[in-house]
Amino acid sequence: MIDESYNAVKSDFITALRIIYREGLSDAFAHLSARSNDGNEMMFMPRKSPALVQRDELFFVDLDRPVPQSALHQAIYKTRADVKAVFHFHSPAVVLLSVVGQSIRPMHNYSAIFYQGVPLYTGTGQVESPARAGEMAKLLGDAKALMLRGHGAVVVGQSIREVCMLALFLEESARLLTEAMRIGTPMFMERDEAEKISKRTFKPTSVERAWEHFAAKCTE
Amino acid sequence: MIDESYNAVKSDFITALRIIYREGLSDAFAHLSARSNDGNEMMFMPRKSPALVQRDELFFVDLDRPVPQSALHQAIYKTRADVKAVFHFHSPAVVLLSVVGQSIRPMHNYSAIFYQGVPLYTGTGQVESPARAGEMAKLLGDAKALMLRGHGAVVVGQSIREVCMLALFLEESARLLTEAMRIGTPMFMERDEAEKISKRTFKPTSVERAWEHFAAKCTE
Amino acid sequence: MIDESYNAVKSDFITALRIIYREGLSDAFAHLSARSNDGNEMMFMPRKSPALVQRDELFFVDLDRPVPQSALHQAIYKTRADVKAVFHFHSPAVVLLSVVGQSIRPMHNYSAIFYQGVPLYTGTGQVESPARAGEMAKLLGDAKALMLRGHGAVVVGQSIREVCMLALFLEESARLLTEAMRIGTPMFMERDEAEKISKRTFKPTSVERAWEHFAAKCTE
Amino acid sequence: MIDESYNAVKSDFITALRIIYREGLSDAFAHLSARSNDGNEMMFMPRKSPALVQRDELFFVDLDRPVPQSALHQAIYKTRADVKAVFHFHSPAVVLLSVVGQSIRPMHNYSAIFYQGVPLYTGTGQVESPARAGEMAKLLGDAKALMLRGHGAVVVGQSIREVCMLALFLEESARLLTEAMRIGTPMFMERDEAEKISKRTFKPTSVERAWEHFAAKCTE
């Protein structure tokens, strides 16, 4: 199933893992996936650090066969036909915000991108089972991101590049909110203001600009 | 319009972008400009990361022709005849301070440089239009810096080197204030004390010393 | 006593010291030890920075002969027959948590690993004497870690790799808790929830995955 | 006056500047000095970044002749016959602690070293004049360090290596205290406990161990 037509996807897959590592969003544990062209499978990675996974270790798995760490990814692809890539990670500010029972709210350019809201799954522990993964996918709804208490987050999007940037922006938004909560009452935006900003700033050209920036840092 | 007489300006332009990136004041998004010798145009940069823009990509634009991201720069050059360079960026502590509705006040050597005050534009969103850019330029008044809620800041000065240092000092001042607000009641300075310190410490020789330091770090 | 059968242990010993340094858990002061195969001695390091100790400087010492910094290690090996490696270090968040009289409680995947609790020794000062080391070993009980007020922590485990990861996870857990205490009331886990998560996530394969990740960073 | 007998001192002088820069205690501004062998002069540095000053730029100045930034150093050498080296710097946590009107108190191994207390000079602004430098030297008394509100600190000791380590330990102590103030009531030590710890841990051998560690980092 992995043939030449996936060369560019595989390159983006590895680069996204390196960006996430380099920007401090993962240590040895984080999992990325990308939907196959026919829609029925996903490209996935072995149980290795995002800093170390190699291109030829990527593999395809269909949306029903369980492999380690696959359940949440599969549940989302089945629930959300629009989603082409999924990233699950455990970044510091996201975990921090989750353990005080809060979630992202729009305050600045990056947090505005999540104007649909970011649901917080308040159960503890791992994904553990396809049934639990299904609950989480349901809670995600039509949002771009879901937070998991004491665990991390998942972001979904149209491409590996988009989910990679959404992961960075979610962590940055969580960092800003946790900092702001310490020193005063943050000035949040209304949903319509946030949506308007998102539509001006979160465009394919800006995703490309940001991707080019972070990918270049990985080769410094 | 870009000829040999701009060689030194172009070098400083690129170095300033690298400093801002290296010091953590920008990711892929920040825009610098410098007024042309005849005063009627500005040297500007394409829509690329400050870490990646190349010298031969710089271009001149007059103060009325709209190009992407140019409106705020143009509005300031038209309002402030004394200004030779403008830097617009979205650094973490500046954004943080802005979303709790506060601005810089003099507390230490660097914040004293902003003794004229740093107005905070409390509207949300992007610059969006020349009219809005004009409002922002008006709010800047005769100050050295303006903060934009949930967005970032703009600093103005006599040279690229000066605005680059002002950007670093503004972020450092915002960081100090947000930290101090968490642990007690900061001891602010009176305006005249701050002005006196600024006149002793923020001189061309100290801008040169700081520039030499930060420029050297970029080539490490 | 150091012969070829210890080649792998010596390699892990040096790598663990480099990881601890590289991840910011030590400056010049931290001490690792590993129990000998016959159980009656421990491999130890000279009084040098973890960043600088060399493989051929490692030595064995029996569990009664005092050498600098050895008392706490020896007391633990004598009290805890199950322990094969001990790490004593002074990482920033652990010290911070200790000076406000708090200790780790399970909140997320990593802190759940310490579901047995992490006792806090509230006396001030150094280990100083075998008698004091004995008190500390007694307070450790059957836990994986002990915190020392204004001083640091000690972690114990089945191998050098395991104690190295426990040190990283303890510091990360302390960092998360100190951050969470600033912004709200953390949602802790019950002990049985934490134990369940620990048993799912803190397995030899995940220790290996994490070790591979952090060891690779040291050679970047 | 600079002859071969100062070769080792000059090497330590430059290494100390690089350490201070590398550890984040200075940007372009910080000044070190060392008393001459006959006691009547001090080795000093030009107005350049600690990251950039070169060995052959060091010079001697007597204790009465004013050169830029020399007044505080000279006043201390005249007041404190025991002092062989002085370091003046503007590190982030020290500045932060100073602007909320607090100073270091013993809480952990490093802060215990400052058991004599660290006076805080609450006037604003620069040293400005020999008279003001004299006031500051008087306030220092027999302590190891003095903090200057909104400005920085000065540390004094028996050698360049000792003041370099004291600078690192002062900043680390300030960082710990500012963090602890945010999350609870720090458990301070009594002066006699702190003095006892200091006498056990802050010895020439431990200064050497720490110096070796930090000096090695500068050549990585």
The percent range for helix content of chain A is 40-55%
Overall pLDDT of chain A? 94
- Described by its quaternary structure, the protein is homotetramer
Order of helices and strands of chain A: HEEEHEHHEHEEHHH
What overall form of chain A do the CA principal axes indicate? globular
SS-derived structural category of chain A = alpha+beta
- Biggest interface: A-B, 29 and 28 residues
For the largest beta sheet of chain A, what order do the strands appear in spatially? Answer: 3-2-1-4-7-6-5
Number of E strands of chain A:
7
Strand content of chain A: 5-15%
Euclidean distance between termini CA atoms of chain A: 33 Å
Uncertain runs of chain A are: none
Alpha-carbon Rg of chain A, integer: 17 Å
In DSSP terms (H or I, runs of 4 or more residues), the helix count of chain A works out at 8
Largest sheet descriptor of chain A: 7 strands, mixed
Compact summary:
Chain A has helices at residues 7-22, 71-79, 92-99, 109-112, 130-140, 160-183, 191-201, 204-218, and strands at residues 31-35, 41-44, 59-62, 85-89, 120-121, 145-148, 152-157.
Secondary structure layout plus pairing:
4 copies of one chain form a homotetramer.
Chain A: H1 7-22, E1 31-35, E2 41-44, E3 59-62, H2 71-79, E4 85-89, H3 92-99, H4 109-112, E5 120-121, H5 130-140, E6 145-148, E7 152-157, H6 160-183, H7 191-201, H8 204-218
Parallel strand pairs in A: 5-6
Antiparallel strand pairs in A: 1-2, 1-4, 2-3, 4-7, 6-7
Helix pairs in contact in A: 1-6, 1-8, 2-5, 3-6, 6-8
Tell me what the structure shows:
The structure is a homotetramer of 220-residue chains. By secondary structure, chain A is α+β, with helices and mostly antiparallel strands. The first copy, chain A, is 45% helix and 14% strand. Chain A has helices at 7-22, 71-79, 92-99, 109-112, 130-140, 160-183, 191-201, 204-218, and strands at 31-35, 41-44, 59-62, 85-89, 120-121, 145-148, 152-157. In chain A, strands 3-2-1-4-7-6-5 form a 7-stranded mixed beta sheet, sandwiched between helices. Chain A is globular. The two termini of chain A are 33 Å apart. The model of chain A has no long low-confidence stretch (mean pLDDT 94). The A-C interface holds A 27-29, 47-49, 51-52, 90, 92, 95-96, 98-102, 122, 124-126, 128, 149-151, 178, 181-182 and C 107-109, 112, 175-176, 179-180, 182-187, 189, 193, 196-197, 200-201, 205-206, 209-210, 212-214, 216-217.
